[in-house]
UniProtKB/TrEMBL annotation, chain A:
Entry's family note: Belongs to the binding-protein-dependent transport system permease family.
Record keywords: Cell membrane, Membrane, Transmembrane, Transmembrane helix, Transport
Membrane topology qualifier: Multi-pass membrane protein
Pfam families the UniProt entry points to: BPD_transp_1, OppC_N
Residues covered by the ABC transmembrane type-1 domain: 91-281
A GO biological-process term: transmembrane transport
Name under which the protein is recorded: Peptide/nickel transport system permease protein
Chain ranges passing through the membrane: 26-48, 97-119, 140-166, 213-233, 254-280
Location(s) in or outside the cell: Cell membrane
UniProt entry tagged with the keyword Transmembrane helix: yes
InterPro entries tied to this protein: BP-dependent_transpt_permease (IPR050366), MetI-like (IPR000515), MetI-like_sf (IPR035906), OppC_N (IPR025966)
Recorded superkingdom: Bacteria
Database matches in CDD domains: TM_PBP2
Species the sequence originates in: Melghirimyces profundicolus
TrEMBL record, chain B:
Topology within the bilayer: Multi-pass membrane protein
ABC transmembrane type-1 domain span: 97-326
Keyword check for Electron transport: no
Protein name as catalogued: Peptide/nickel transport system permease protein
Domain of life of the native organism: Bacteria
Spans through the membrane: 6-32, 103-123, 146-166, 178-197, 257-283, 303-329
Gene source species: Melghirimyces profundicolus
InterPro entries: BPD_transp_1_N, MetI-like, MetI-like_sf
Length: 294, 335
C-alpha cells in the first residue's frame, strides 16, 4: 500500500490545492455559503417577492414572519418596501461592486507591480514612493476624499474603494515578481533570447497567481464591507438603491422605536457575506500557499 | 547602525511621503469637475460671491503659487476658513479633536485590557472550548460591520433595556464644564462625579463598538505569538530552573509575545480612524468623524482638506513611533 502511494505520479498544482482545500471543512462550508449568496444575487428577479425600489406607503414598517406576516417574511421598511426582496437584490449589488473593485485592482495593481519589479531602477523607486503616499492615508478617508471629488454614485464608490487596494496589490505583485525573477528558469529563458513579454506572460504571471488569488478573495470581503460603510454613511450610494449598507442608514431612528427588522436582516447579510469570503480566503491561502501570511 | 541613526533615517523617509500627501490633499479642490467656488456656494451663490470666494481661496493665482501658499499655512495647521460656518478650519477641528481621541483611546484600552488576557488564556489552553471561542470571535469580529454592531448595541442596551443613552457625549443637565475637551478628565477636574458617571455612560456603547476590530486582532495575534514563544527553548530553561508557572507566563513569555501585538496595534490606526467615522455617525458622537461626513455633505472643501491632511499626518507619525518602538522592544532588530 505505502509503496503504491509513493510511486503515484505527483498531482498537478491545481489538483493538490483542491485536495488541500477539500480537507478544510470550514473552507468548504464558506465556499458553499459564497455560492448560495451568489445564487441569491443571480436569481434575484425570480425569487424576489416585490420590486425592491418602488415605495408602497400603505405597507410601511410592517413586522414579518414572527408576527404571522408571510406576504413580507422579513417585514417592510420605512417606505413600505419588502425587506426580503431588497436583501436579495442587495446581494446582486454587493457582488457586482465586489467583483468590479477586484477587477480594477487586479488589472492596475498587477500592471504597476509588474512594471515596478521588472524594470526596477528609477521607475521602481518612483512607483513605490507613490504607493507609499497612497498607503499613508487612512483607507476610509481616502475613499471618502475620492467621493468628495468625483461626487456620489455607485461607479464612483467602486473607483474610490479600488484606489485603497491598488497600491497594496502592486506591492504584493512586485515582491512576488522580484522573487520569481531571480529563479534559474527565468534566467535560462532570458539567455535563450525570449522576449520580455513572453517571460512575463509565460513565466512570471503564472507564479504570482496564487498569492494574488488569495489576496483578491480577502480583498473582496473588505470591499463589500467598505461598500456597505459608504452606503450606510449615505455618501457613496443613492439611498433608494437596495444596497445592504444603505438599508441600514435610517436604521437608528426605527431601532429606538423597536422596529428592529429594518436594521437586523441587512446587517446579518453583510456580516455573513464578509465572513464567508474571509474564511474562503483563509482556506485558499492554506490550500495554495501554506507559507504565505498576508 | 545605532537606534538614533535608524530613527533619523525613518524620519527623513517620512518627509517625501508627507509632501506627496500634501500635494494630493491640495489638488483635491482642483480635481473637482467644475468651479469649486461655485460648487461650494451652490445653489445660493451670486457671481460676486463666487468671485469673492475664488479670491479668498486664492484660486486665481498660478497653481504652483497656490500650492506653496497652501503648504506654508498647512504646516502651521492653518487650512483656511470653513465655507459653511465661516470660522477657521483649525478651530472646527480642535473643538472636536478631543472627542475622537477620547473615543479611540477608550476603544484601544478595551482591546488591550480584554484582548491580551484572552489571547494568553487561549494559548495556554490550546484546543479547549475557550480557545475555540476566541478563534471564532477573532474571525467573526473582523467581519461584523462596526456601524451595524453599534445599532445592535443601541437596540439592546439603550432602546430595550434602557441602561445606557442612545447618543451624544453628555446629558444636558449634567453640569459639565469643558476644560480640556476630554470629558472624563474635565469631570474629574471640576470635581463633578455625576458628570463623570454620565460621560462614562455615554462612552460605553461607542467605545465597545469601535473596539471590536482591534480586539479581534489583539486576541488573534496575542494567541499566535504566545504559542510561538511558549515553544521556545528558553521557556523550557525557565521551567527547568523551577520558576513558578504564572511568573513564566507573565514575565518571560508575555514580554516577548507582546512585540507583534504592538505592531498590529500600530497598523490598526488607519482602520481605527475609519471605524471611528462610522461609530461617530451611529452614536451622533461630535468628533472629527462626524465633522468630515458633514463637510462632505456640505461640500466644505477646506474642512475636508484639513481633516484628511491632519488624520494622515497622525497616521504617518504613529507608524513612525511604532517602528521605533519595535526596534526598541526587540534588540535583535538591527537595520
Amino acid at each position: 500500500m505505502s509503496i503504491n502511494k509513493t510511486a503515484q505520479a505527483p498531482r498537478s498544482f491545481i489538483g493538490e490545492a483542491f485536495k488541500q482545500f477539500r480537507k478544510n471543512r470550514l473552507a468548504v462550508t464558506s465556499f458553499i455559503l459564497v455560492i448560495v449568496i451568489m445564487l441569491l444575487g443571480v436569481l434575484a428577479p425570480l425569487i424576489a417577492l416585490e420590486d425592491p425600489v418602488n415605495p408602497s406607503p400603505e405597507n410601511r414598517l410592517q413586522p414579518g414572519f414572527w408576527a404571522g406576516n408571510f406576504d413580507h417574511p422579513l417585514g417592510t421598511d420605512e417606505l413600505g418596501r419588502d425587506i426580503y426582496s431588497r436583501i436579495v437584490y442587495g446581494a446582486q449589488i454587493s457582488l457586482k461592486v465586489g467583483y468590479t473593485v477586484i477587477l480594477i485592482t487586479a488589472i492596475f495593481g498587477t500592471l504597476f507591480g509588474l512594471i515596478s519589479a521588472y524594470y526596477g531602477g528609477m521607475i521602481d523607486l518612483i512607483l513605490m514612493r507613490i504607493t507609499d503616499i497612497f498607503l499613508s492615508f487612512p483607507p476610509l478617508l481616502l475613499a471618502l476624499s475620492v467621493i468628495a471629488i468625483l461626487g456620489t454614485g455607485l461607479e464612483n464608490a467602486m473607483l474610490a474603494i479600488a484606489l485603497i487596494y491598488i497600491p497594496q496589490m502592486a506591492r504584493i505583485v512586485r515582491s512576488s515578481v522580484l522573487t520569481v525573477k531571480e529563479l534559474p528558469y527565468v534566467e535560462a529563458s532570458k539567455s535563450l533570447g525570449a522576449k520580455n513579454s513572453f517571460i512575463i506572460i509565460g513565466h512570471i504571471l503564472p507564479n504570482i497567481l496564487a498569492p494574488s488569488v488569495v489576496y483578491l478573495t480577502l480583498l473582496l470581503a473588505d470591499a463589500i464591507l467598505y461598500t456597505s460603510a459608504l452606503g450606510f454613511l449615505g455618501i457613496g450610494i443613492d439611498p433608494s438603491t437596495p444596497e445592504w449598507g444603505a438599508m441600514l442608514s435610517k436604521g437608528r431612528d426605527y431601532i429606538i422605536l423597536g422596529q428592529w427588522w429594518v436594521t437586523v436582516f441587512p446587517g446579518i447579510m453583510i456580516a455573513l457575506t464578509v465572513f464567508a469570503f474571509n474564511l474562503l480566503g483563509d482556506g485558499l491561502r492554506e490550500a495554495l500557499d501554506p507559507k504565505m501570511d498576508v | 547602525m545605532n537606534i538614533l541613526n535608524y530613527i533619523l533615517i525613518r524620519f527623513l523617509w517620512a518627509i517625501p511621503t508627507l509632501l506627496g500627501v500634501s500635494i494630493l490633499v491640495f489638488l483635491m479642490i482642483h480635481l473637482i469637475p467644475g468651479d469649486p467656488a461655485q460648487l461650494m456656494l451652490y445653489p445660493r451663490g451670486t457671481p460676486e460671491q463666487v468671485e469673492a470666494l475664488r479670491e479668498q481661496l486664492g484660486l486665481n493665482d498660478p497653481m504652483a503659487v497656490q500650492y506653496f501658499n497652501w503648504l506654508k499655512d498647512a504646516l502651521f495647521f492653518d487650512f483656511g476658513k470653513s465655507v459653511s460656518t465661516g470660522s477657521s478650519v483649525i478651530s472646527e477641528i480642535s473643538s472636536r479633536f478631543a472627542a475622537t481621541v477620547e473615543l479611540a483611546l477608550s476603544a484601544l484600552s478595551i482591546a488591550v485590557v480584554v484582548g491580551i488576557p484572552l489571547g494568553v488564556i487561549a494559548a495556554r489552553k490550546k484546543n479547549s472550548l475557550i480557545d475555540y471561542l476566541c478563534i471564532t470571535f477573532s474571525l467573526g469580529g473582523v467581519s461584523i460591520p462596526v456601524f451595524w454592531l453599534g445599532l445592535m448595541l443601541i437596540f439592546v442596551f439603550a432602546a430595550t433595556l434602557g441602561w445606557l443613552p442612545v447618543s451624544g457625549r453628555i446629558s444636558m443637565d449634567s453640569g459639565m464644564q469643558i476644560v480640556t475637551g476630554f470629558y472624563l478628565l474635565d469631570a474629574l477636574l471640576i470635581g463633578n462625579l455625576y458628570a463623570f458617571g454620565d460621560a462614562v455612560k455615554h462612552l460605553i456603547l461607542p467605545a465597545v463598538a469601535l473596539s471590536t476590530i482591534p480586539l479581534a486582532m489583539v486576541v488573534r495575534i496575542t494567541r499566535s505569538s504566545m504559542l510561538e514563544v511558549l515553544s521556545q527553548d528558553y521557556m523550557k530553561t525557565a521551567r527547568a530552573k523551577g520558576i513558578p508557572g504564572r511568573l513564566i507566563i507573565y514575565k518571560h513569555a508575555l514580554r516577548n509575545a507582546l512585540i507583534p501585538v504592538v505592531t498590529v496595534l500600530g497598523i490598526q490606526i488607519g482602520s481605527l480612524m475609519g471605524g471611528s467615522i462610522l461609530t461617530e455617525t451611529v452614536f451622533s458622537w461630535p468628533g472629527l468623524g462626524s465633522l468630515i461626513i458633514d463637510s462632505i455633505n456640505d461640500r466644505d472643501y477646506p474642512v475636508i482638506q484639513g481633516v484628511v491632511f491632519l488624520a494622515t499626518l497622525i497616521m504617518i507619525v504613529v507608524n513612525l513611533i511604532v517602528d521605533v518602538l519595535y526596534a526598541y522592544l526587540d534588540p535583535r532588530i538591527r537595520y
